[in-house]
Amino acid sequence: MSTTIKKYRLKKGLTQENLANLLNVSKSTIGMWETGARKPDIIKLKKLAVILDCSVDSLLSEI
Predict the structure, then answer these.
(1) Residue 19: in which H helix or E strand, if any?
(2) Nearest-5° angle of CA 10, CA 53, CA 11?
(3) What CATH class has 2-60?
(4) What would the pLDDT profile of 14-26 be if each residue is shown by its tens digit?
């Protein structure tokens, strides 16, 4: 999931900070999601899918 989040984020032209602000989380949280150190909870995952214009399934495709 980590590389998938980064791929969709970059495709949308968002920085980690932009995405963090949209999700009301810290930039370091986004960084941890993208490195695989942590995973977003289901609520954040759904919001991520909306912001990144993709499905939750596509975000989970790496798992």
Answers:
(1) helix 16-23
(2) 15
(3) mainly alpha
(4) 999 999 999 999 9
